[in-house]
Amino acid sequence: MEIMLNIALLLVLVFTGLLYQRLRQQSAQLASTYEEVTRLQTIIDEYKKGDAECAVEEPAMRLSIKVNNPMVLAKRESKAAKFVGDLLPDLIEQKVYEQVRDEIAVGLKEKDVDAEIKIEVY
User: Fold this and answer.
1) Shortest CA distance to 71 belongs to which of 88, 54, 47?
2) Contact at 8 Å (CB) between 71 and 92?
3) What is the DSSP letter of 111?
4) 121: pLDDT confidence band, cut at 50, 70 and 90?
5) What is the rounded distance in angstroms from the CA atom of residue 102 to the CA atom of residue 69?
6) pLDDT tens readout for residues 62-116
7) Distance (Å, rounded) from C-alpha 105 to C-alpha 99?
């Protein structure tokens, strides 16, 4: 009976130690998050005070394009993509988006549209 109580006490001590360690990790993470929020709030406050004109210059709209079937498009347009597509699908998808970006940039340039086109990964 005494051995069982000692084992139970040992388990309680180990569990308490693990909880304490987790609490310290959470506390450190919370402090780090608080510092980051404070830093971001400072940046926002500075922006609101000094750059009222900037908000007018930068439009609030963006155009987003999603290629629904990049692998199908790549395999249709390129023989190499048929072979490489199954091995490196992420690379093929990246190349499809780069090609779409380049073609859109050419079309906009032909129409004298000043635009910034970039690929953003979500």
Assistant:
1) 88
2) yes
3) T
4) confident
5) 18
6) 888 889 998 888 888 888 887 787 788 888 888 899 999 999 999 999 999 988 8
7) 10
